[in-house]
Automatic annotation (TrEMBL):
Name used for this protein in its record: Probable dual-specificity RNA methyltransferase RlmN
Cofactor, how bound (note): Binds 1 [4Fe-4S] cluster. The cluster is coordinated with 3 cysteines and an exchangeable S-adenosyl-L-methionine.
Further comment found in the protein's record: Reaction proceeds by a ping-pong mechanism involving intermediate methylation of a conserved cysteine residue.
Assigned protein family: Belongs to the radical SAM superfamily. RlmN family.
GO MF, any single term: tRNA binding
Length: 422
């Protein structure tokens, strides 16, 4: 799932003004998502098309160590006539030293190194483009997979942590109208190893000093890149194990540094709560009322705000992890003080201290409905939540000068390549 920071559009058409459905002050302006075609739409009549169908993959990705648990890796080596116990060493090279280069594995017999790596460490993703921002503290990658499909990841260095935002799908079927990825539709799910390879590259780059500020340890992974992770549930849960399980099974990251973000697939939130993986759940809410959220997050037509917050609260009770509520502040659409109060009331009604709200400021985009709130309006929104006892932290947005919203880099590169072919 993406961080849902709406992209720049440069659209200049006038925005129709409607009145808010409930709770507004008289004369308050209410902009709705349907006041403008979805991002990237080719027709003015286009409407978001929610889809849960996962198209079949065009050919299977080569078998990779990160797709398998340790027993599966041993069995795979044995099946290929290689000693199964080498799976342990191979896994430690991969998860601890972040390498798939046979030449670096000097503790393996010279005559077997190449074959062992060929069996379980094929190349799954290669870099198409890397863009730097924020003085070199942010790097956005565009990756190409074995079948030519492209996905993005973003590596960000903060004072106290280094975080990777990964993609879990190529494209997305959730059709959020502000999101470039959502308008592409879903191409396919990523395999567990295709997700984990994004992490392995980032861990290596960080350790080698690829980010400004010198070598760093990758500490956090957030599933907020391309795709809705819950739609690719099985691969994502296996990826969570590779992230959290200690070497040689996985990277051994702290579960509290791993976040799965969702637009609200309620049954799968409940299923994740039962997996015994105490990762953080982030809910991309963006509106506390169904009338607005039905248009802003199309999956709300299936699971309403109340059901979603009930599931999120149950997730907190099952895992002990405070839930993050993501809320992109969009001018005159969802940034009204009464909506902040409604959100606080909905959260407080279910208990105190179980959720943390992250308002996300957008870029200023004159002429588009997807633009930032006035500074005073943002302050009032945040103050309203805090006065109601809700822990609230305005999110630091990164990579805003490198098309930071999910899907924008992939779309931009595709357009450049098409232009070259013309
Ligand atoms: S369309 Fe998909 S990738 Fe984009 S914001 Fe919605 S869930 Fe996230």
């Amino acid at each position: 799932m993406s961080p849902a920071r709406p992209p720049r559009t440069g659209r200049t058409q006038p925005v129709a003004i409607r009145r808010a459905p409930a709770g507004p002050r008289p004369g308050e302006v209410q902009v709705f998502p349907t006041d403008q075609p979805p991002e990237g739409a080719t027709s003015p009549d286009a409407r978001p098309r929610l889809s849960f169908a996962v198209p079949p993959a065009r050919g299977k990705a080569p078998r990779h160590l990160a797709d398998l648990d340790l027993a599966g890796r041993k069995a795979a080596l044995k099946d290929s006539g290689l000693p199964g116990f080498r799976a342990d060493q191979l896994s430690r090279h991969y998860f601890t030293h972040h390498t798939r280069d046979a030449a670096e594995m000097t503790d393996l017999p010279a005559g077997q190194r190449e074959q062992l790596c060929a069996e379980l460490l094929p190349e799954l993703i290669h870099e198409v483009r890397a863009l730097r921002a924020d003085g070199g503290r942010t790097i956005k990658h565009l990756w190409e997979l074995h079948d030519g499909v492209r996905v993005e990841s973003v590596l960000m260095r903060y004072k106290d942590r280094t975080t990777l935002c990964v993609s879990s799908q190529a494209g997305c079927g959730m059709a959020c109208p502000f999101c470039a990825t959502g308008q592409m539709g879903l191409t396919r799910n990523l395999s567990t190893a295709e997700i984990i390879e994004q992490v392995r590259h980032a861990a290596r780059l960080s350790a080698e000093g690829g980010l400004a500020g010198g070598p760093a340890r990758l500490s956090n992974v957030v599933f907020m890149g391309m795709g809705e992770p819950m739609v690719n549930y099985r691969s994502v849960v296996a990826a969570l194990h590779r992230l959290i399980d200690p070497a040689p099974q996985g990277f051994g990251l702290s579960a509290r540094g791993v976040t799965v973000s969702t637009v609200g697939l309620v049954p799968l939130i409940r299923k994740l709560a039962g997996e015994g993986l105490p990762v953080t759940l982030a809910v991309s809410l963006h509106a506390p009322d169904d009338e607005l959220r039905d248009e802003l997050i199309p999956v709300n037509s299936k699971w309403k705000v109340g059901e979603l917050l009930d599931a999120a609260h149950d997730y907190f009770r099952a895992t002990g992890r405070r839930v993050s509520i993501e809320y992109a502040l969009i001018k005159d659409m969802n940034d009204h003080a009464w909506r902040a109060q409604m959100l606080a009331d909905e959260l407080n009604r279910r208990g105190s201290g179980w959720a943390h709200v992250n308002p996300i400021p957008l870029n200023p985009t004159p002429g588009s409905i997807w633009t930032c709130s006035e500074p005073g309006v943002q302050d009032t929104f945040v103050d309203t939540l805090r006065r109601a006892g809700i822990t609230t932290t305005v999110r630091d947005t990164r990579g805003s000068d490198i098309d930071g919203a999910c899907g924008q880099l992939a779309t931009e590169v595709l357009n450049q390549e098409k232009a070259k072919r013309r």
